[in-house]
Amino acid sequence: MKKFFLVIAASMLPFLGHAQSDDFGTILSVEADKKINKKLTVSLDAEMRTRDDVKTVDRWSAGLQVSYKLLSWLKASAGYSFLYDNNERISYYEEGDGKVKRGVVNAGDPKKCAQYWGTRHRFQVSLTGSHKLGKLELSLRERWQYTYRPEYTVDERWSYFDDEYDGEEHTYRGKGKNVLRSRLQAEYKVKGFPGTPYAHVELFNAWNLEKVRYTLGYDWKINKQHTVGLFYRYQTVNNDDDNEANRHLIGLSYHLKF
Asked: What is the pLDDT of residue 3?
């Protein structure tokens, strides 16, 4: 187990060096499972996230998921999540803008900003395969995710050039997005030991690689019903239209089984 921790911790060191320039946030989550039979499980979950060095609530969410064990090593699942986001939408000056042509501002400078709470609806289906190598369990999860953001109109936006609100309505059109999420995970399990250390890397693809998450965590099984978890995550963003940043995250979870 010591070797497992040392290898995973060493792999995280390059990301810790970016802590001064990246954002920091937290994730708090609760989940409840009800096993219908040996193969079918229904789950409910809720989550709260923060950003801007824990100064801003980033998102609230709640979801429902159904999982079915197809084989001893293969599981299928489907679910829906309702997301309530604290959005920060920033537009930027482009080459054809009048102020750019006159040399007043440069292309790429921030133009206007809107901050508002909005909803998203997320649907997902997954297949997870697992394989044991002694005390180590490896798993690969492939998840298709579709998220729809309804149309939303703000009363006004902040103008960086005028240093005041513009007093004009602006509508953000509704939009749907498909993402393929691929997660490779390793867990170290010892019979009779209450804790399970784990590590995983997850790739987000939407015609190109948009986001990567690296996670190192530990789940402590209090008894058959109650489990608490603690994890560290580093997220890198390449080309994501949700205006997310590279971010360090500390997460705390609680899991209840009926």
From this structure: 55
